[in-house]
């Protein structure tokens, strides 16, 4: 009888824990929705202001497409490797999971390095955030995306340390799935940045 009661208590605890994880996942979806609204606003602002160059440098003069294409390739590859990490997690392979997350983090860091290089080059050309309305909108939109990638990198490193210590459990599983979702979301946003900002800018 006592054994049955103990089992019942354990089941109730597991159920409560599962509910808590579901609630946290729901909260994460709400965060992503607010991020969609944020980026939507920034894109709308950029589209309105992109023609206001204030006699300063234009997109055609500033954008160096080989670097942008490299950034795109790196970020798309990192989205693929984060997907492989999730597959490794579902197979219960902790080492492969951490390994693929590390590859994803390295690719993300390479993307940020290229973006910072691009920004530094633009500032040297006299194109700063205060030069024109177009550049204010550009730096705010692209910089916000870069900030999100940087936050993702910090989150990824913290998660790798947690996985090394605690292994794959319901909590780390939920965190890996949310992180992968976040990373894919940033990839989709970047495709819009590539199209709306860079490709339309040089056409």
TrEMBL record:
Oxidoreductase listed as a keyword: yes
Residue ranges of domain Heme-copper oxidase subunit III family profile in the record: 26-202
Domain of life, source organism: Bacteria
Sequence intervals crossing the membrane: 26-48, 68-90, 97-114, 134-161, 181-201
Record's bilayer topology term: Multi-pass membrane protein
Record's signal peptide: none
UniProt keywords, alphabetically: Cell membrane, Electron transport, Membrane, Oxidoreductase, Transmembrane, Transmembrane helix, Transport
Pfam families: COX3
Localization (cell): Cell membrane
Known partners and oligomeric status: Heterooctamer of two A chains, two B chains, two C chains and two D chains.
Known role: Cytochrome bo(3) ubiquinol terminal oxidase is the component of the aerobic respiratory chain of E.coli that predominates when cells are grown at high aeration. Has proton pump activity across the membrane in addition to electron transfer, pumping 2 protons/electron.
Family: Belongs to the cytochrome c oxidase subunit 3 family.
Record-given protein name: Cytochrome bo(3) ubiquinol oxidase subunit 3
Gene source species: Paenibacillus ehimensis
Taxonomy of the source species: Bacteria, Bacillati, Bacillota, Bacilli, Bacillales
């Amino acid at each position: 009888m006592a054994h049955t009661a103990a089992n019942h208590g354990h089941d109730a605890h597991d159920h409560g824990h599962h509910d808590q994880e579901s609630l946290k996942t729901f909260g994460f979806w709400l965060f992503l929705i607010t991020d969609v609204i944020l980026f939507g606003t920034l894109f709308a602002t950029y589209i309105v202001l992109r023609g206001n160059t204030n006699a300063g440098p234009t997109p055609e003069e500033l954008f160096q497409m080989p670097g942008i294409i490299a950034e795109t390739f790196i970020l798309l590859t990192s989205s693929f490797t984060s997907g492989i990490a999730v597959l490794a997690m579902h197979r219960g392979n902790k080492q492969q999971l951490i390994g693929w997350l590390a590859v994803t983090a390295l690719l993300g860091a390479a993307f940020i390095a290229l973006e910072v290089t691009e920004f530094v080059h633009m500032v040297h050309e006299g194109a700063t955030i205060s030069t024109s309305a177009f550049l204010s909108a550009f730096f705010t939109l692209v910089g916000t995306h870069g900030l999100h990638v940087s936050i993702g990198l910090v989150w990824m490193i913290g998660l790798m340390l947690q996985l090394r210590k605690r292994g794959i459990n319901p909590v780390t599983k939920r965190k890996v799935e949310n992180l992968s979702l976040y990373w894919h979301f940033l990839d989709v946003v970047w495709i819009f940045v590539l199209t709306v900002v860079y490709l339309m800018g040089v056409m």
